[in-house]
Amino acid sequence: MKIIALGMVAFLLSFNSQAQNKNVKTEVKTNITTIKDSQGEKKLVKTEEIKEVQAVELMDADSKVLNKDTKETPVEVTATTKITADGVTKLIDVDRSAYYELDGVKYQVSNDKSGYTVFSPDGKKSAILRKTSNNNYIYKSKNKTSFGYFDGDGNLVLESYDEATDTITVTTYVIEK
């Protein structure tokens, strides 16, 4: 009975060693920033993790040659950013903090504890952006609540319902590069 059990364990472990058919490279970069102001000292910890996964494929897999050449395959790159500020850790897929322009007026979008804050040109808080479960945002200002998202070019697109005309209006904040 012992021999059968040991044989099964050896058999299962041999499958695990044969299943390694991916090259994985992970790079973690941590940046610690200390900010001193009148309220004291704040420490911001930004951790960026870049993971590259490449499947290993053989050029001539059916040949009987012992040493085989590998074939170039696409590399999947995943980047995640974690920011810790005031004891709160926030996972950011892409940091959207930047300056955006609407009708010739420049607005600043910056990170906060729960999402993003939109500041008007005079530095006053004009709106907030909160991430939803499906990677979109809720835009809330004093007199307007909209559905928002970032398009492929990085622009902030807001869609609002106009009750008077029963239509959806689209407003695009263009990112300044």
How is this structure best described in words?
The chain is mainly β and 177 residues long. Helix content is 10%, strand content 58%. Strands 7-8-9-10-11-12-13-14 form an eight-stranded antiparallel beta barrel. Strands 1-2-5-6 form a four-stranded antiparallel β-sheet, with no helix packed on it. β12 and β13 form a beta hairpin. The protein starts with a helix and ends with a strand. Residues 1-19 form the signal peptide. Keywords: Signal.
Lateral arrangement of strands in the main beta sheet: 7-8-9-10-11-12-13-14
Average pLDDT score: 82
N-to-C series of helices and strands: HEEEEEEEEEEEEEE
Structural class estimated from helices and strands? mainly beta
Radius of gyration: 25 Å
Shape, per Cα inertia axes: elongated
Strand content: over 45%
Amount of helix: under 10%
- What is the number of beta strands? 14
What does the main sheet amount to?
8 strands, antiparallel, barrel
Count of DSSP-assigned helices: 1
Low-confidence stretches: none
Instruction: Quote the distance from N terminus to C terminus.
Output: 71 Å
